[in-house]
Amino acid sequence: MRQQAFAAGGGAETGKLLGDALNACRETWKGLSRDQQPVPWAVATLDLANVTADRAILGGGANSVKGLDEAIDLYRQALAAVSDGRSPEIWSAAQMNLGSALQSRGIRTAGEAAISFLQEAAEHLRQALTTLKPEKEAQDWAETQNNLGLTLAELGSRQGKPTGAPRLEEAFQAFGAVQTVYTFEKQPRRWSEARLAQARVLLALDKADEAAPVLKEITDKDLDNRRAMLTYASLLGGRLAKPADAAALSARYLERHPDDVEVQVLNLENLFAAGRLAESRYRSVSLSEKSAGFPPALRAQVLGYEIATGLGTGTKDTPERLASLIALVAAQAPDFRTAGSFTASLRYLQARPDARNADWQIQLLHALQNRNGRDAILAELRKLESAMSGEG
Q: Any idea where the domains of the chain sit in the sequence?
């Protein structure tokens, strides 16, 4: 029933199947005696804990933490029942699953309170690895290494610098171990996930120059890996200040996924930051023409680039397009923010103060970059509108 629930793909059907599985597991569990049948009882307890954890994670919401706490308690009971060494296999499974549940609990816990969950999770996952051998239980070993890597990466991030750096280094090693089982040739998706996790660890360690070749390797091998492409494009256009390379990367992805609007916007932003104004304008105008169904934050970003490129090329309808942007922003909620950061584009303009209408373009992008809500954005846009009308 549990496998059927996963196959259902989510929604009400998954919830019903997991509920049925939970009831079935609970009935089996109640029919066994811990004292007289410790190993079967531990197996049944593990099954019950697994379904309880699945429901908590897939269901989300307010009951997620409560469900995980119930699962953690069940895993502890299963572990205690076989702690005398009578079933190393069940002991290892209990350690592995308890570690994974504690990791999930830590991720869902705010602030420093998460650290104790994550530390204990790492301890149990390491215990599981003492009995798992990659030659015999390759998949379980790799999955446990992966969970250990995720746990240590989260722990290192929560601990901050410099305390968390050793945990991040350990996470990098764990993800590397995963790739010895999940090679690109045998398991390309799982290899990509582990390699991307390594790249993110390197970025968290402020090792951008080391992360770049890792991300290049992933995006060269796994051309459809959107997350890796976005991470690499962000790095190229941001910290490494190589917007032309970021534009080439996003353009290559769009050859295979031409309808991905967010990547189209990323590409026009990369083109702008690389100084390829005509290409950026062509894409921004094309996107504006079909932007009616876009989320307002994305519409504002696209329209902003249409205006910026219009200012850069001296397009006559730029004041009217600015008025449209002001009307769009004015219609939003008080906490409205635009999509995008505009940092790379501003860096390009600030390095070229003699560019056509560079001061107005900078003023426009600064306004769209404002994170203080609708009214703050509007104030800056109206100031720009006034300056442009006065000049005219």
A: 2-275, 276-392
Q: Residue ranges of the alpha helices (H) in 182-276?
A: 188-204, 208-221, 226-237, 243-256, 261-273
For residue 210, the SS3 value is helix
Q: How far apart are the first and last CA of the chain?
A: 71
Predicted confidence (pLDDT) per residue in 277-305, tens digit = 999 999 999 999 999 999 999 999 999 99
Residue range 197-221: average pLDDT?
A: 98
3-state secondary structure of 100: helix
What digits encode the pLDDT tens for the residues 187-207?
Answer: 999 999 999 999 999 999 999
2-275 folds as 1.25.40
Q: Give the pLDDT confidence score for residue 2 in this predicted structure.
A: 47
CB 101 within 8 A of CB 75: yes
- The answer to whether 338 and 301 are in contact (CB under 8 A) is yes
* DSSP three-state, residue 347: helix
What are the structure tokens assigned to 109, written together? 């816990």
